[in-house]
Amino acid sequence: MKFPKVYLASASPRRRELLTQIGVDFSVLNVSVDESVLAAETPSDYAKRIALAKAQAGWKSIKTDYRPVIGADTAVVLPSQHILGKPENQQQAEAFLRQLSANSHQVLSAVAIVWQQQHWLSLQISEVQFKKLSSAEIDWYLATGEGKDKAGGYAVQGLAAMFIENIKGSYSGVMGLPLFETSQLLQQVNIVNEQ
């Protein structure tokens, strides 16, 4: 399958691994966007807005060699619709794990592509069930430092996999980039690009 050569507006090593997995030729753009949640914003609107903002920021940063830019955002959402971002400190990381323990939560993974005056956007929603975590397990996981820069304070592809009873949805989406949706968008861009 042929994909266009793209930019990835993300410093996430997981997103780089996932794009490489499906054979996408890409270069990385480091962008910075305000990821604050707006008042009365739904989690799905939030994830889509941030993914698009990252792609747009990447597009604006290009000086030459204009190629499509991919932006993505992953939000961990409790049943109360509260979004768990990246923990700001150890205490917040512990609070996140206690909230996830013995509960299911949603992981919303949005991907956006910006090219010229157009954009494409998709959202993937997965449900993740955590087992009941003991205080010792929480302390051990916090000590590894694995979840400190991850939405929700855990990494599905890492040690936290031991805590996950099941996933309904997209494993790659929970990791940070839903590959099915990404490949579908890239095919759409390629069709437009070749016209």
UniProtKB/TrEMBL annotation:
Its cofactor is a divalent metal cation. CDD domains: Maf. SUPFAM superfamilies: ITPase-like. The keyword Hydrolase applies. Its main location: cytoplasm. The active site is at residue 73. It is found in: Cytoplasm. It catalyses: dTTP + H2O = dTMP + diphosphate + H(+); UTP + H2O = UMP + diphosphate + H(+). InterPro entries: ITPase-like_fam (IPR029001), Maf-like (IPR003697). Its EC number is 3.6.1.9. One of its GO terms (cellular component) is cytoplasm. The keyword Cytoplasm applies. One of its GO terms (molecular function) is UTP diphosphatase activity. The record marks 14, 74, 157 as: Important for substrate specificity. One of its GO terms (biological process) is nucleotide metabolic process. It comes from the Bacteria. Keywords: Cytoplasm, Hydrolase, Nucleotide metabolism. Belongs to the Maf family. YhdE subfamily. Nucleoside triphosphate pyrophosphatase that hydrolyzes dTTP and UTP. May have a dual role in cell division arrest and in preventing the incorporation of modified nucleotides into cellular nucleic acids. This is dTTP/UTP pyrophosphatase. It comes from Methylophaga nitratireducenticrescens.
